[in-house]
């Protein structure tokens, strides 16, 4: 829907991993609307968005589709001009491409947090105010000092409470978003009440 609102003409393929069965979407829907990696691996793309998944409690290597995801991320370096990694996949991409570790938080990070733009002249930050708010909803994080030690990466926005929010490699072709700027008005609330109904005590 967000891509559909742009004046640009965007042609989009939806991609699923073969090594995982979706719990929330029917197999019929997936087969009707999604492609597998072997169906797209010979294509080139202007951009790719890899979305997150609620698996951050697992070590990366224990996620059932980790090897397939690694293959896709490696392929993206030669077949995609720019790749957005969102939430858990931001951590997964930083780990796969640059060896950046993730760390468990004492409690779930859940809420809308204020971020400061560190490089307002970077082309990815055009149009941002000096500070902006986006939601976060996760149990793990990456550390600012680890990102700064990596000469291939630049941190573009950070939150005192939520940590690094927007990072990219020096070419700008790999972008890592640890929060959820794409959330709708009710998305975070729906996640909160889902957790509460499971008996999880979430501190917003």
Rounded mean pLDDT is 91
Radius of gyration (Å): 17 Å
Task: Tell me roughly what share of residues is in helical segments.
Answer: 25-40%
Number of DSSP helical runs? 6
| Percentage of residues in strands | 25-35%
Spatial order of the strands in the main sheet?
A: 1-2-7-6-5-3-4
Unreliable runs: none
Number of strands: 7
Q: What is the rounded distance between the termini?
A: 28 Å
Q: Label the structural class.
A: alpha/beta
Element pattern in H and E: HHEHEHEEHEEEH
| Shape annotation | globular
Biggest β-sheet: count, sense, barrel? Answer: 7 strands, mixed
Question: How would you summarize the topology of this molecule?
Answer:
Blueprint (H helix, E strand, L loop, with lengths): L26 H7 L3 H4 L4 E6 L15 H14 E7 L1 H11 L4 E15 L13 E11 L2 H6 L3 E7 L3 E7 L4 E4 L9 H11 L7
Parallel strand pairs: 1-2, 2-7
Antiparallel strand pairs: 3-4, 3-5, 5-6, 6-7
């Amino acid at each position: 829907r967000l891509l559909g609102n742009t004046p640009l003409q965007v042609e989009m393929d939806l991609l699923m991993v073969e090594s995982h069965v979706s719990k929330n979407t029917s197999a019929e829907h997936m087969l009707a609307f999604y492609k597998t990696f072997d169906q797209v691996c010979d294509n080139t793309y202007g951009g790719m968005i890899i979305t997150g998944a609620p698996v951050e409690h697992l070590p990366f290597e224990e996620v059932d589709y980790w090897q397939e995801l690694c293959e896709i991320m490696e392929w993206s370096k030669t077949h995609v001009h720019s790749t957005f990694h969102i939430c858990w996949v931001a951590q997964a991409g930083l780990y796969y491409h640059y060896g950046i570790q993730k760390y468990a938080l004492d409690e779930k990070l859940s809420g809308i947090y204020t971020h400061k733009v560190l490089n307002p002249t970077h082309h990815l930050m055009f149009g941002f105010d000096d500070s902006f708010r986006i939601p976060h909803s996760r149990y793990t994080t990456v550390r600012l000092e680890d990102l700064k030690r990596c000469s291939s990466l630049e941190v573009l926005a950070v939150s005192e409470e939520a940590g690094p929010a927007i990072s990219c490699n020096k070419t700008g072709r790999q972008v890592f978003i640890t929060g959820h700027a794409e959330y709708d008005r009710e998305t975070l609330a729906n996640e909160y009440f889902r957790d509460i109904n499971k008996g999880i005590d979430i501190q917003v």
